[in-house]
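User: Here's a structure from my thesis project, written as structure tokens. My advisor, Dr. K., wants to see whether a designed sequence matches the one we expressed. Can you design one independently, without my sequence as a hint?
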């Protein structure tokens, strides 16, 4: 029986991809890296592959790049808009389940976006700065909230969300309207797929039957 739905924030609740692409371009220019030109194919790559193959950033320097990018993003992320229909989806799910958010953004940013968009049915927010090693953060949330693995569904928009959920031993609904494309997500075999926020409800209902 499902008790809790945990949402990723960027690309799942908040539409932050345009903000990320714009500021990543600024940072690349400042660091003398390859310039980013947005094309739909960008969404076919995981974050690690994008940093390594597109921007030619070695795995050893990726964390430093991401930290610098986070500083650039912070002021604009506070003004991010949420995806159309996500408020209604969260409100509907909150009638039956506890709702949490797992994010690498600051809690202050997340709370401001939620408040600005009148989303008030969140039970907890887990905020940690690292964007890698998400499976460890998922396990930490399970311990803190005293949840069993089979009582939780995670909802995320990236390949790394699927990878983290599998490592943590919990089921995941991947959403194809965020950072990664449907093609990239399906290649990593999520437990469910939603093309719109509204479809998350149906995916949760199907999983709750099994």
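Assistant: Designed independently from the structure alone:
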């Amino acid at each position: 029986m499902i008790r809790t739905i945990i949402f990723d924030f960027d690309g799942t609740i908040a539409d932050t991809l345009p903000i990320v692409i714009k500021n990543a371009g600024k940072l690349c220019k400042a660091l003398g890296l390859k310039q980013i030109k947005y094309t739909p194919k960008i969404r076919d790559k995981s974050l690690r592959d994008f940093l390594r193959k597109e921007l030619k950033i070695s795995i050893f320097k990726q964390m430093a790049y991401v930290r610098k990018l986070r500083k650039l993003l912070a002021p604009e992320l506070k003004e991010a808009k949420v995806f159309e229909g996500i408020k209604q989806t969260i409100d509907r799910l909150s009638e039956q389940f506890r709702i949490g958010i797992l994010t690498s953004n600051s809690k202050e940013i997340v709370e401001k976006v939620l408040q600005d968009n009148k989303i008030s049915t969140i039970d907890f927010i887990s905020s940690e700065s690292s964007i890698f090693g998400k499976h460890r953060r998922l396990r930490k949330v399970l311990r803190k909230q005293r949840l069993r693995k089979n009582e939780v569904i995670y909802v995320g928009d990236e390949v790394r969300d699927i990878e983290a959920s599998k490592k943590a031993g919990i089921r995941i609904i991947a959403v194809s309207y965020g950072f990664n494309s449907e093609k990239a997500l399906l290649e990593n075999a999520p437990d469910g797929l939603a093309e719109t926020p509204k479809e998350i409800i149906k995916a949760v209902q199907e999983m709750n039957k099994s």
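When you compare it with your expressed construct, this may help: The mean pLDDT is 89.
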